[in-house]
Write a structure and sequence with these properties.
Order of helices and strands of chain B: HHHHH
Radius of gyration of chain B: 24 Å
Radius of gyration of chain A: 23 Å
Strand content of chain A: under 5%
Strand order of the largest sheet of chain A: 1-2
Structural class of chain B: mainly alpha
Oligomer: heterodimer
Largest sheet of chain B: none
Number of helices of chain A: 23
Helix content of chain B: over 70%
Shape of chain B: flat
Largest interface: A-B, 60 and 60 residues
Shape of chain A: globular
Helix content of chain A: over 70%
Distance between the termini of chain B: 65 Å
Structural class of chain A: mainly alpha
Number of strands of chain B: 0
Number of helices of chain B: 5
Largest sheet of chain A: 2 strands, antiparallel
């Protein structure tokens, strides 16, 4: 294995490949910053040029753009509160709050460092445990996925903000949106009322831009109108200090572990990983009341999960030929264009491509840090531009992103409609992240449940007799009830202290 | 005297009405043949029932204060500009619509007219160069292209 890895490094460190790595990271960052494109869009842009490239160069470029796109996504989420991809929605919570507190630089640095550490860790795990992990991943069927997704939805309970009722309403709204379109099992139209646009389902990017970007910008416009002066975000610090780094390190570990384990499951994707990582962080981290106020741990955990999941999602793609996400599906297409068929025999038939990929992932992560870290002061200078000049352009980006999906005027109109809904939700404390979670997970949850019941011939107890599913369901219950119990116990014990007579009495 | 007409109650009523509309399709789906026990209606039905319950809770126990959400007139205008831009772009093309949109928005934000012209023109060109040409996204040119 070491020899093969060294051979891979020898390939990846060729001068032209280093150039390709650097170019890929920069391009990926730019493309990833574009809402609606993200990592899958970045890879898709490469497909037309894939025909002229050899497989090794192609895979190196794809992996560099893949990682770069995740970082670009996060940067815009942190600075402008615009999630370019479902996986960066969670980063907006603490990331943008940190930017508003003058911590844009440390937040961006946290994203870069967390991505590097967790991404590198994922590559090591990929290298060491590819076969074992793929054997574990292949055991995940619809019943196991159901348990995982229910557990994932309990993460939404941690995102409900101040009002649990409003948070649950947001989540149910997202689940309702997920049911619009063609039923994946029977093929019937659902909730389309004859509309061709609705038959395709409601695009995630329309909802995300409508609920995040539009209200954010309109709210800032309102502040400008009220205050009558340009509003600039404060810039206190640019870098992470030693104390910040020690503080975020456990979050990186937890988020990275969660991300890799979820990422190896085909179809699970980075979105679930980021939501779960954040939920775990809020449950386990000290001073949970600080999450949501700009705590860098709230950036580190989802970013680590995001990158670790992206590494993990390569496992089923490379070993089984089953892409773990839209982006890896694009990579699969690119590899096949290059004459390489991922699957169980890839390591034997194309060891140079496989180990070249592993080596390029190490180097891609490192390149991401080396290229983007020095650019952080440049990125945060963008926040120096007066809001009344910057924000109109910020409003154009979601419009371009939405239009780029299908060139549909209806999508654009719906952006405005969701923008109005999102503005009201923001004004009245209905949290937006649970809507996204419901929209993204709803279809998978329903499919898993129905397929599980088909497999078990309608026996609903199968979800309780399956060990993996039961474990996830118990974890879900524990994560919901546990904090409530603890809160009740602690409040009771503090009340007991009040009514017990003091020794002086 | 308790004020019954609270904002949360109105929102809850709207949610209940919308869910009732959603439920009409659930009932129709329930009549369709399906090989799986849950069918296309099962999951939506469960969501609708939960939504009715949560909206009813909000109706009975509203959470927000008595004052209503204040949305400045200017905000409606800017939102309207955005909607107008999204409707105009496929018809008149990205460059023309974007220049007009940016100019109008900058003027509403109090930017001097000559700066608004400069920024909207140069900005549109830069955005088109990056997204339309460099990233090769298919942005409409309009009837002039």
């Amino acid at each position: 294995m070491i020899e093969s890895l060294l051979d891979g490094f020898a390939v990846a460190l060729e001068p032209n490949h280093i150039l390709v790595l650097a170019l890929g990271v920069v391009l990926g960052t730019l493309v990833g910053a574009m809402p609606g494109l993200g990592p899958s869009g970045a890879i898709a842009l490469l497909l037309p040029v894939a025909y002229g490239m050899d497989a090794t160069t192609l895979i190196i470029l794809m992996s560099a753009m893949y990682y770069g796109a995740f970082y670009g996504d996060s940067s815009v989420a942190i600075m402008l509160n615009i999630p370019g991809d479902a996986a960066s929605v969670i980063t907006t919570i603490d990331g943008h709050a940190a930017a508003q507190n003058g911590q844009a630089g440390p937040a961006l640095a946290t994203a870069a460092v967390s991505s590097f550490i967790a991404g590198t860790g994922a590559v090591v795990l990929l290298m060491l445990f590819t076969e074992a992990v793929s054997e574990w991943a292949i055991r995940f069927g619809p019943i196991e996925y159901f348990g995982l997704l229910v557990f994932g939805l309990t993460a939404a309970a941690s995102l409900t903000g101040r009002s649990q009722t409003k948070g649950v309403i947001s989540l149910l709204f997202g689940l309702m949106l997920a049911t619009v379109g063609i039923d994946p099992i029977t093929g019937y139209d659902r909730f389309t009322w004859g509309s061709l646009w609705l038959a395709d389902g409601i695009p995630f990017i329309v909802v995300a831009m409508g609920l995040f970007a539009v209200p954010q910008v309109l709210d800032t416009f309102r502040e400008i109108s009220v205050r009558g002066a340009p509003r600039r975000l404060p810039l206190d610090r640019v870098w992470l200090n030693g104390r910040d780094f020690r503080r975020i390190l456990p979050s990186i570990g937890r988020g990275g572990s969660t991300g890799f384990l979820v990422g190896v499951l085909p179809g699970a994707g980075a979105t679930i990983a980021t939501f779960l990582a954040y939920a775990v962080e809020k449950r386990v981290g000290r001073n949970p009341e600080l999450y949501g106020t700009g705590d860098l741990r709230g950036v580190a955990a989802p970013e680590a999960a995001n990158n670790a999941a992206s590494g993990g999602s390569l496992v089923p793609m490379l070993t089984l030929g089953v892409p773990g996400s839209a982006a890896t599906a694009m990579m699969l297409a690119g590899l096949m264009i290059g004459g390489v068929t991922p699957g169980p025999s890839m390591i034997q038939n194309h060891p140079d491509v496989f180990w070249g990929l592993v080596a390029s992932m190490y180097l891609g992560n490192l390149m991401l840090l080396l290229v983007n870290f020095p650019l952080i002061p440049f990125w945060i200078r963008i926040l120096d531009i007066p809001a009344r000049y910057l924000l109109p352009f910020v409003l154009i980006i979601p419009v371009i992103g939405v239009y780029s999906i299908k060139q549909s005027p209806v999508d654009l109109l719906m952006l405005g409609v969701f923008g109005a809904i999102g503005y009201y939700m923001r004004a009245r404390d209905y949290p937006a992240p649970p809507v996204i979670l419901g929209l993204v997970l709803g279809t998978m949850l329903e499919q898993s449940m129905r397929r599980g019941l088909i497999i078990s011939n309608g026996d609903i107890l199968v979800f309780l007799t399956n060990g993996i599913c039961l474990t996830f369901l118990l974890l879900a219950v524990a994560s919901l009830i546990g904090p409530l119990l603890l809160r009740t116990l602690f409040s009771r014990s503090s009340r007991d202290e009040e009514i017990l007579p003091t020794t002086s009495e | 005297m308790q004020n019954w007409l609270q904002e949360d109650r109105i929102v809850a009523a709207v949610v209940i009405l919308a869910t009732a509309g959603y439920w009409t399709d659930v009932e129709h789906l329930d009549t369709l043949r399906s090989d799986d026990i849950v069918g296309p209606a099962g999951f939506p039905a469960a969501i609708a029932i939960l939504m009715f319950a949560m909206a009813a809770k909000l109706l009975i126990w509203p959470e927000t204060r008595d004052d209503w959400v204040k949305i400045a007139e200017n905000t409606w205008l800017k939102w309207g500009l955005l909607v107008g831009y999204t409707l105009a772009m496929p018809v008149f093309g990205f460059p023309a619509s974007t220049v007009v949109f940016l100019f109008s928005l900058l003027m509403l934000l109090g930017v001097a007219w000559y700066r608004a012209i400069l920024v909207s023109g140069a900005g549109t060109a830069a955005v088109y160069a990056v997204f339309g040409l460099l990233l090769n996204l298919r942005l409409p040119i309009g009837p002039w292209g």
